[in-house]
Amino acid sequence: MKQAPRQCYERLSSFLLSQGYERGKIDKTLFIKNACNEIILVQVYVDDIIFGSTNKILCEQFVKAMQGEFEMSMIGELNHFLGLQIKQFQHGTFLSQSKYCRELLKKFDMKNYKEVASPIVTRCYLYNDEKRANVDQTKYRGLII
User: Fold this and answer.
1) CA-CA distance, 32 to 51, in Å (whole number)?
2) N vs C: which end of the chain shows fewer Cβ within 10 Å?
3) What is the pLDDT along the chain (145 residues), one digit of tens a residue?
4) In sequence order, what are the residues at sequence separation of 6 or more whose Cβ sits closer than 8 angstroms to the Cβ of residue 72?
């Protein structure tokens, strides 16, 4: 049924809106809820939902509300999503597409091709939002969000 995913999304979004979430202005599949200077973000992609918060209690409340309304299962901490490998640390998140790149190279029979340096700026400066402290870029090989 072609309409099933759309109907499922409409039901889910109606539920989230009724729970005080706001739909993202640019990405309509992103839902945001502010509560007492804390925030929870819920991203819906087809039949997958990823969420995160500045407060663990908001995550627990979200899970309880969702399980009360829908039949769902918790897979656990996010490790892989849409071709991205995700590694979560206490002070940030590391994203990598190395597995996706390896699969592309294999698919197009390019595993034995010669490597070429990426045309990327190596002298840009990343800052931690709160303290504007420099981030040691040599420690990471991905994007910190």
Assistant:
1) 10
2) N
3) 456 778 888 899 999 999 999 999 999 999 999 988 899 999 998 778 889 888 889 999 999 999 999 888 878 888 888 778 888 888 888 888 888 888 888 999 988 888 777 777 767 666 655 655 555 555 544 433 3
4) 49, 66
What the chain holds in terms of domains, given with CATH numbers, is: 4-69 (3.30.310), 80-144 (no CATH)
Residue type, 113: Y
User: Which structure tokens are listed for 3?
Assistant: 């309409």
Is residue 81 within 8 A of residue 40, CB to CB? The reply is no
User: How buried is residue 35: exposed, middle or buried, by Cβ count under 10 Å (0-12/13-18/19+)?
Assistant: middle
* Residue with tokens 């504007």, as numbered in its chain: 132
d(CA 59, CA 55): 7
Q: What is the CA radius of gyration of the chain?
A: 19
Q: Which two tokens stand for residue 61?
A: 């409340």
